[in-house]
Amino acid sequence: MLVRIIQFHYNKYKEKLLEKSEEILFFFA
Length: 29
Hints:
Blueprint: H1 2-28
């Protein structure tokens, strides 16, 4: 159960990180 919660938050965090990195890449492109 705890693992599921951690995975959920990890996925949200990963999505935010990807959005940020895409913005950064777009900025430098």
